[in-house]
Amino acid sequence: MGAFLARRLIGMFFVLLVITFVTFAIFIVVPGGDPATRMAGKNPSEQGIQNIRETWGFDEPFYTQYGKMMEKTFNAMRPGFDDPNNELISYSRRENVVDQIKQRLPATFSLAIGAAIIWLAFGVAVGMISAVRAGRLSDRMITILALIGISMPVFWLGIIARYYLGPENAGIFPDGDYVPLTQDPIGWFYHLLLPWMVLAVLFIGFYGRVLRSNILDTINEDYVRTARAKGLGPRRVLSKHVLRNSLIPIVTLFGLDFAGVIGGGAILTETVFEIDGVGQYAARSIRTLDLPPIMGVTILGAFFIVLFNVIVDLVYAYLDPRIRPT
Length: 326
Hints:
Elements (H helix, E strand, L loop, with lengths): L1 H28 L5 H5 L6 H11 L5 H15 L20 H36 L4 H15 L2 H12 L19 H34 L3 H8 L4 H13 L1 H18 L1 H6 L5 H10 L3 H29 L7
């Protein structure tokens, strides 16, 4: 286990390094990617642009700029680090990027965790019911509803739900915004319930279809027939033998989807419901080609994706003892 974790930590470092380098290169070579020109404002003089390049180090070689940005990024993540001269500062807003991400993480975590609980619970339930009743009318109805959920764009569903269920019509839910959990737990839940459901709809349908297919494949395995031959009841066979092994692909999907949502995958949901999270911050930064915030959010997303890949491998070993982390 120790060797497995050590290899994954080394791999995580190199993955983050490659991703950040590619991101940095894309936003430097893209047309209009010169940050000095954007920072100089409208109708800037050539001398003004040159002064900004010298002050911010944009006149230095590409690899030097990348090295300095990565040094500032990882220094800012160190516990207890406090050096105003070595902070990762956004080009457009002149704000500390790490502080801005930290301020927005609670909103994104709240949205991601709540939606993940809903889509995982309902996705597993839908998959089990559909598999148990395969070929019947209820299975076909669930299949239709799942396909509808998968097909609906998140931004469209969010706008429709906010309009018809918000204060303008039904008045069941508030009109977007985010209330911190520490400030008002009930308000936090009330404001996030609709965004949770909107974000979860896509995943519920997809997880349900995948789990249904896995259960129908697993139910014909030899060890399942052996369990039945031993006299085990249908519920025990389904829960202990069939479902446990059928969940392995779901674990993979959940790990990647949850990490992706935290790393900015909930941009559309945060935008529709005016939740000022990491996704919103990334979207604003992309519109202005503000590289430091983009790098910060990219590292955050890549870190969680690699981290959850490690967790998924460990959960594999629990669900199926024949699998060992390597």
